[in-house]
Amino acid sequence: MQSPQVLLVLSVTLSLVAIGATDGGFCSAPSILDRETSSKPMYWKVTNPTLSPSHLQDLPGFTRSVYKRDHALITPESHVLSPLPEWTNTLGAYLITPAMGSHFVMYLANMQENARSALPPHDVERFIFVVQGSAMLTNASGVSSKLMVDSYTYLPPNFEHSLRAEGSATLVVFERRYASLENHITEQIVGSTDKQPLLETPGEVFQLRKLLPQAVPFDFNIHIMDFQPGDFLNVKEVHYNQHGLLLLEGQGIYRLGDSWYPVQAGDVIWMAPFVPQWYAALGKTRTRYLLYKDVNRNPL
Ligand code: UGY
Ligand code: MN
């Protein structure tokens, strides 16, 4: 004879076995394969980031952002948008500025319908990279180029230009007071990442493209660095150059000084001169990041 208690224990045990079987075992974790992004446009995660794990989303005050003397991690839930000075129909978020110790600014510009850019201050050069939408760039001679996702432009100091967006567009912009050199000038550049050749990276496994010419007139360059999951920087870098970084794709761990940060697409990092820096790509998809680096000038 089976008592009701025995029947109850049996039925609970059977239903737990059924749950275990469908979940692939009691110790299984949800898949981290990002099915969502594989069918989405390039760099989709930058403007549609995972804000935080669902169990932390409602935790008041939770952010992964960190601000320290020699580095900062600015994650998307911390962005504060406000109208960009003199631009029309454009909201911006300054993410790196000289208030942190940098000699450049890095900001996101969200252009809305019929948005129009303003010029940078006198003697300031500008670099623009499109992460979402498209914008039309026109220079003083009336020459126009359509900038799509993954394309960019470098605008020399005091170079007349205007950017217009018909629909919405998200740009990442770098500006810096040009460190001029006698007998050297820079010229306007328009290009796209996929048209840039892969460069040698002795001792490293990541793939490297540089978006600007490696020529003396340029006082900075923008690197595009690709890592397969499991790849990491071989050199535990400490150097005089500054960096502004936008993670365009993927996720991993960034070491900055003595701190180790889980990072993902949409995150921005400020690295001051000489901050120890190291990255390992994790997850299931490629990491791609865009990196500002000052070059070609004597630090004295
Ligand atoms: O070129 C660089 O300094 C680059 N490898 N740094 C970095 O990825 N943090
Ligand atoms: Mn570096």
From TrEMBL:
InterPro entries: Cupin_2, RmlC-like_jellyroll, RmlC_Cupin_sf, UGHY, UGlyAH_cupin_C, UGlyAH_cupin_N. The keyword Signal applies. Pfam families: Cupin_2. Residues 224-290 form the Cupin type-2 domain. Keywords: Signal. One of its GO terms (molecular function) is ureidoglycine aminohydrolase activity. Residues 1-24 form the signal peptide. NCBIfam families: ura-cupin. This is Cupin type-2 domain-containing protein. It comes from Citrus unshiu.
